[in-house]
Amino acid sequence: MQYDLIVIGGGPGGYPAALYAAGHGLKTALFEQKELGGTCLNRGCIPTKALLHSTEQLREMRTSPIFEGTPLLNVSGLYEKKDSIVSGLREGIGKQLAAAGVKVISGHAVIRNGHTVVCGDTEYSTKNILIASGSVPAALRISGITLPGVIDSDRLFADLPEHIGKLTIVGGGVIGCEMASVFAELGSEVTVLEYQPYLLPLMDREIGRSLQPILKKRNINVQCGAEVYEIVQDGEALNCHYRVKGKEQSVQADLILVCTGRKADLTDLFEDPGLVESDRGIIVDDSFRTTAEGIWAVGDVIHGSIKLAHAAEAQSLYAAALIAGQTPQTDPKVIPACVYTSPEIASVGMTLEEAKEKGLDVLSKKATMSANARSLIAEAERGFIKIVYDRDGKLLGAHLMCERASDMIAEYTTAIVNGLTVGQLASAVRPHPSFCEAASQLFLSAAQELQKQ
User: Are residue 160 and residue 231 in the same domain, yes or no?
Assistant: First the structure.
C-alpha cells in the first residue's frame, strides 16, 4: 500500500494527473467514490453538450426555409444517445487508467496527514497526495429551496422527465443559458431569472446583453436584475417569487432548476480540517502546493478557482509534472471559457473593463459577422469578435459570440500565452470561406491604426 502518488478524485482534475504520473514511472493510485470522469463527464459538460447538439439540429430544421414539414424529435432516443456517449467515455477512461497501471480504488478517501490516506479500514501510504475532489452546487439560502421539484444541476440528469411543461431556471450563467436553450427546443415554457443586470455576468458585458434578445426570440423569458427570495408549493406546481427593482413578481413552474454557482467539495476530506489552509476552497501556491508538506490540490476544490474542466486538467498536468520531476508544458494561467448556446460564446484573457481597472492603457476593436460568408451560409444569428490589446499591439483578451467560437478561441489563447501582437496575428492567412477569417481584417485594421500613432 505504498505509493508515489495518490490522487483523490477521478474527474478532469484527477485522472489526467494519474495517467501522467504513471507514465513517468510513479506508482499511482486514484480514489473515486462515484464515477470516473467526475461532474464534467457524468452530470455536466458532456451530457449537456450532447443535448445541445441534438436540439440545435432540431432548431435549424424548424427555422430554415429549405426544410418543409414539422421535424419530430425522439426524446427517448435523445436521452439514450446522451447516456451512450457518457458511458462510452467513462469506460474509455477506465481502460486508459488500467493500461497505465494506475490502481483505481472505489470509495471515499480521507486524508490523515501529508503522506497517509484512509479508505474504509485500509491505510495507504504515499509520498504525495493530489486533491482533485471537485465541487458541488452552491445552494440558495431561501425558503422552499428543498421542495420536491426544486433541483440543482447535479440532479438534473438523474431522473430527467421526457417533457417539462414549465421550467424556471434560477441563474443566467453558463449552465442556465445552455439549459434554457435545450428545454425551449424540447417544448418547455422557459423562464430564466438572473440576479445581475445582464446574462453571463462573468463574461464581457456585451455578450450577455446580446444573448438576451436572441433567447427572447426563441420564446425564452429572461428577467435580469431578479432577486429570487422564496419558492412555495401551489398544488402540483411551484411558484417562484422574485423582485425586480423592488417590485415583487412570481412565475409558476413544474420544475425549478437552480444553477447559481458551485463551491469546493471538502466534505469529510480531512481527519483534521485544519491540516491545510482553506478559505472557501484549498489555498495553494503558483505550483498548486498546499500549506501541508506533500499535499497538492487542483481544479474546482482550490480557492478562487475558475470552475472549468479544462482548467482543472491543465492544473493537474502542471502539478503532476512537478511531482514527477519534469518541466510542465501547460500554462494554466490563461484559460478560455465557452458557452455552447447558439451562437456559441467564448472568451479568454481580460475584458476592456478589467484591463482599465488594472490601470493598463488598452484599446478594443470589434468585427461583426454580418458579412462573413460562412455565417450567412449557416444562417447564423448576429455575432461578433472583439479583441483587447495594449499600445504595443500585444493581445490581452478576446471575446467571441459567433458560430464555432469554442473552436476558434484556441487561436486567441495561444496568442495570449505567447505574447503575440495584432500585427503578428494579421500576418497569418486564414482559409476562405471560414468563420475564423473574420478576424483577419480585424487584426490588420488594429495593427495599421497602431502604426499611424
Answer: yes
